[in-house]
Design a protein that fits this description.
The chain is an alpha/beta fold. It is built from nine helices and six strands; from the N terminus they run αβαααααβαβαβαββ. It has two domains: about 140 residues, 3-Layer(aba) Sandwich (Rossmann fold), CATH 3.40.50; about 70 residues. The chain has a six-stranded parallel sheet with strand order 3-2-1-4-5-6, sandwiched between helices.
Length: about 220
């Protein structure tokens, strides 16, 4: 689909649900490296497997990924250990995410809101950590609500639509993963894919609306 038409879909939506990693910030690969660093003590093979899994599953919460990665490392993923590894990952990743490049055009779109749209932020990042990142990026006032893990994106969209009385046809989900697409489909709203090198394979046969960035030129 032509980029101009996809940007028209974006500008005509009244309500936009934004994913974060890979949509607002170019932080997917950074998080993959952070996961690999945390699991490096278990060997290069495990670290590499972890990195590749993260790339293919960007919209999945670390609370699902880390138990899996621990099992790959031959470690029983008990609750306290999972929490410890989540904390290690946060310590490595958060500042790098804040410093990562913006997806072109998105900072101006979010901060200027040229079409007076209602913005909501949905992410698999833990809620309290997501709030810290948003504050550091001076995006506090851009979103009506911010939802991180453990709330799932489909549940967050459904709750917001019901509470605000939105019509599904006026809503748009912008994401870069199959999980984002599924969250949109579950709520019968339009999905706009942000294409990048890490999701080329997953969306090879995708024929819906997509953008490479949010520049209008």
């Amino acid at each position: 689909m032509a980029a101009s038409l996809s940007l028209s879909v974006l500008s005509n939506a009244g309500v936009i649900f934004w994913d974060f990693d890979g949509v607002i910030k170019e932080s997917l690969e950074i998080k993959g490296e952070a996961f690999a660093e945390v699991f490096a003590p278990f060997g290069a093979d495990t670290a590499g497997r972890v990195r590749e899994h993260h790339k293919a599953n960007g919209g999945v919460s670390r609370y699902e990924k880390i138990p899996l990665y621990l099992s790959w490392a031959g470690v029983q993923p008990v609750g306290s250990l999972v929490e410890s590894y989540c904390a290690r990952f946060s310590a490595v990743a958060m500042e790098r995410v804040i410093r990562s490049p913006w997806v072109p055009g998105v900072e101006a779109w979010l901060k200027n809101n040229p079409f007076n749209q209602h913005f909501f932020l949905l992410s698999a990042t833990p809620h309290t950590e997501l709030l810290e990142i948003v504050r550091a990026l001076d995006l506090d006032s851009s979103f009506l609500e911010i939802h991180g893990a453990p709330m799932g994106k489909a549940d967050a969209i459904r709750s917001i639509i019901e509470r605000y009385g939105y019509r599904p046809e006026e809503c748009l989900m912008i994401g870069d993963s199959k999980g984002d697409q599924l969250a949109a489909e579950k709520n019968s709203i339009t999905f706009l894919l942000r294409r990048h090198s890490l999701n080329e394979v997953a969306f090879r046969s995708y024929e819906g609306c997509s953008v490479a960035d949010f520049s209008e030129g």
